[in-house]
TrEMBL record:
InterPro entries: Ig_E-set, OxRdtase_Mopterin-bd_dom, OxRdtase_Mopterin-bd_sf. The lineage of its organism: Bacteria, Bacillati, Actinomycetota, Actinomycetes, Streptosporangiales. It comes from Nonomuraea jiangxiensis. Keywords: Membrane, Transmembrane, Transmembrane helix. This is DMSO/TMAO reductase YedYZ, molybdopterin-dependent catalytic subunit. It holds the Pfam family Oxidored_molyb. GO terms for molecular function: heme binding; molybdopterin cofactor binding; sulfite oxidase activity. Residues 279-428 form the Oxidoreductase molybdopterin-binding domain.
Length: 552
């Protein structure tokens, strides 16, 4: 029998070929049908809230890379184990690969928008792996050993493998091997079934090299094919209409332009991204429709063109993620252009008793948004543009929701395609059964942007600055204290309304030594941020952002 490491290597390479072929086929069928992505997606779905929080806290926006990396490492270990087992009997290897295939297929088929063709990447990947494993082990087992009874034929060898004993493509393995390294490799002659087989390291390794090339080429080609299936071209071609209800011009002084302080408007490329999608959904605007149904008198269906022709509204709104820790980065402010949700809902005719809008994205994510919030006059939008350009694909192109005052997980559905008017009693959105509160009003918060934690400053006058938010209520005051002393009022920047964050700044004389800086905001309802620390789950973090620095 071939040694364990050789089996593990054959298993690994076979796994690589499987993933490469799957990637190649997924490049044609659709990137989200790759088993790795589907298994990763399923893992995201099944992740309990505390683990999700841990992942976001630990890996931030690279949590997806870490997840895919994790899936690959687990796959590699199992593939190696399958290779080791398959040395004893191919059937063990095939059974292992089949089990894998079933898991991959389950993950692919339980995706919300799964189609029949989506099974192809996994199926072809598994078949390719079985073939490769068999072929590699066949090569490793070498030819029959001279003098053994079965010289001249190898029974039960890998499927479709052309074997030759002498004078073939890569030479008579035993003869060449024997000539080269008698006493080194050859002693690995063992019993395999009734036959004596030699372990042929050279033929295994050349096979492995071939497998690696095939796996790599298929992966690269698959990525290129998949990369072409993007909606970038359609996005660039969108002609955005003028706003029928333009945003009020920004008042002078919304931005202090202090180095290190978050700018009032967050550039699209700097805007935080949080979603469950491992592969960004590619939704062609030409294929997009929005269906509004459920507890309404007249269900509505809009195309992208319909939407662009309706009177659009522009609004400056700060989005915030419920997963944001005190002082965290998952908050950003943009100018959105879109259709008022209330307008469409009025057209559809809301039935009494409806208290929830269950919106669904193209990839099956859902938000549950309170009807009264959307209908109370605030600028809740089906947004098509962000900071003057069509929505970036990762921020929801072609259409997403934006609702001032609600955390993203209950309101900001990207790639939105369906809104069911319903009740909180009858329906549950994505994060609710995963341990997050059904309703998610944003909690009043403030953050110190400068100085950064751990900064070494020159003693003396220094600028402390940051942002505070209390969407749809508005920030009325921000106070700062150092080393637990007196709170002092910070200077507030201008804001266009209650739906954006507000910059604040204060100059402070810092004596030499270590200092602790803290901030708290008071909103327009009179509420001052509590000092009480709460973690993000289930309904948003609380506490005062605290930064320690040294002055010298
Ligand atoms: N389709 C979809 N929309 C989604 C999400 C998601 O996972 N899938 N996440 C929501 C959450 S939790 C937040 S905080 C916002 C973030 O929007 P952004 O990525 O544009 O900043 O999107 C929301 N919309
Ligand atoms: Mo979020």
């Amino acid at each position: 029998m071939v040694p364990g490491w050789a089996g593990a290597l054959a298993g690994l390479v076979s796994g690589g070929v499987a993933l490469g072929m799957a990637q190649l086929v997924a490049g044609v069928v659709g990137p989200e049908t790759s088993p790795v992505v589907a298994v990763g997606d399923a893992a995201v779905d099944l992740t309990p809230a505390p683990l999700k929080e841990f992942a976001i806290r630990t890996f931030g926006e690279s949590d997806k890379t870490v997840l895919v990396g994790g899936v690959l490492v687990v796959l590699a270990v199992i593939a190696a184990a399958i290779g080791v087992l398959a040395r004893r009997a191919r059937a063990y290897g095939f059974a292992g690969l089949s089990a894998f295939g079933v898991i991959g297929l389950l993950a692919v088929l339980t995706r919300p928008d799964a189609g029949a063709l989506d099974v192809l990447p996994t199926l072809i990947g598994v078949v390719a792996a079985a073939w490769t494993l068999s072929w590699l082990l066949g090569r490793a087992e070498g030819g029959p050993v001279p003098g053994s009874a079965t010289s001249g034929g190898v029974a039960g060898d890998g499927a479709g493998v052309k074997r030759s004993v002498a004078g073939a493509d890569d030479g008579p393995p035993v003869a060449a091997g024997a000539a080269e390294d008698v006493g080194v490799e050859r002693p690995a002659v063992m019993r395999a079934g009734a036959e004596l087989r030699a372990f042929d390291r050279r033929r295994l390794l050349t096979g492995v090299a071939g497998g690696v090339v095939v796996a790599g080429a298929a992966t690269v080609l698959g990525r290129q094919l998949g990369g072409r299936q993007t909606v970038d071209a359609a996005r660039v071609g969108v002609a955005l209409p003028r706003a029928a209800n333009p945003a009020k011009p920004l008042p002078a002084g919304t931005d202090f332009h202090i180095n290190g302080l978050s700018s009032f408007i967050t550039k699209n490329k700097d805007f935080y991204r949080v979603d469950t999608a491992l592969v960004v959904p590619q939704v062609e605007p030409a294929d997009w429709t929005l269906r509004i149904h459920g507890l309404v008198d007249r269900p509505v269906e809009l195309t992208y063109d319909d939407l662009l022709k309706m009177p659009l509204t522009e609004a400056d709104v700060t989005l915030t993620c419920v997963s944001n820790e005190v002082g965290g980065p998952y908050v950003g402010n943009a100018r959105w252009l879109g259709l008022r949700m209330s307008e469409v809902l009025r057209r559809a005719g809301l039935r009494s008793g409806a208290d929830m809008l269950l919106s669904t994205s193209a990839d099956g994510f859902t938000c549950g948004t309170p009807v009264d919030v959307v209908m109370d006059g605030r600028e809740a939008l089906f947004a098509v543009a962000m900071n003057g350009e069509a929505l970036p694909v990762e921020h929801g192109f072609p259409v997403r929701q934006v609702v001032p005052g609600l955390y993203g997980y209950v309101s900001a559905t990207k790639w939105v395609v369906d809104v069911k008017v319903t009740t909180f009693d009858a329906d549950e959105a994505y994060w609710t059964p995963r341990g997050w509160s059904a309703k998610g009003p944003i909690k009043t918060q403030s953050r110190i942007d400068v100085p950064r934690p751990g900064d070494s400053l020159r003693a003396g006058r220094t600028k402390i600055a940051g942002v505070a938010w209390a969407q749809h209520t508005g920030v009325d005051a921000v106070e700062v204290r150092v080393d637990g002393g007196q709170w002092k009022q910070a200077t507030l920047a201008q804001v266009p309304g209650p739906d954006t964050w507000r910059q604040w700044s204060i100059d402070w004389d810092l004596a030499a030594g270590d200092h602790t800086i803290q901030v708290r905001a008071t909103d327009a309802s009179g509420y001052t941020q509590t000092e009480q620390l709460a973690p993000p789950a289930p309904d948003g973090a609380t506490g005062w952002h605290t930064v320690t620095v040294q002055a010298a």
